[in-house]
Specification:
This protein is an alpha+beta fold. The protein is built from three helices and ten strands, in the order ααβββββββαβββ. The strands form three sheets. Strands 2-1-4-8 form a four-stranded mixed sheet. The chain is elongated and about 95 Å long.
């Protein structure tokens, strides 16, 4: 009499591994990498929060750089922030802590625009999470500010 238990065990193991790998590759990975589903008003809020880069910001003695210095938006209402460069020199809007939004990518005007924000140009970024987001200008590190996105209680 021949004992087939060893062969059956190996075949069962191979099938189990194949099923596990298939699940991991075709179900788990796509779900793990998928962008979250968010309400339309978070992705495209009806209002914007505006920030100006003040004239003379490239001079450390100016004292006024991003106006307002502490901008505040509300998720689903005004969580899209638009910076306008009102200075005569180029600037950036660069995250202090490496924030990467799950929908809109890195909070960094150089990454988003591919260049420095030149005079008269705008940079916009839609924050999809409540939080506090400190940032600065890359060539002018004394230019520091914060965007705070708060919950909507409407």
């Amino acid at each position: 009499m021949v004992n087939h238990a060893g062969g059956i065990s190996v075949i069962t193991f191979v099938v189990a591994v194949a099923i596990s790998m298939g699940y991991y590759q075709f179900v788990y990975i796509p779900q793990a990498n998928a962008k979250p589903t968010l309400p339309e008003e978070v992705l495209n809020p009806p209002e914007v929060t505006e920030v100006s880069i003040a004239e003379g910001s490239s001079l450390e003695t100016n004292g006024q750089f991003f106006v307002p210095r502490d901008a505040r938006g509300t998720i689903g209402i005004s969580n899209k922030v638009v910076w306008t460069n009102g200075d005569v020199t180029g600037h950036t809007v660069t995250t202090d802590d490496g924030y990467v939004d799950l929908i809109n990518g890195e909070f960094n005007s150089i990454e988003q625009l591919g260049a420095i924000l030149m005079p008269g140009e705008t940079f916009e970024f839609t924050f999809t999470q409540v939080g506090e987001y400190p940032y600065h200008c890359e060539p002018h590190p004394w230019m520091q500010a914060t965007v705070e996105i708060v919950e909507s209680f409407a």
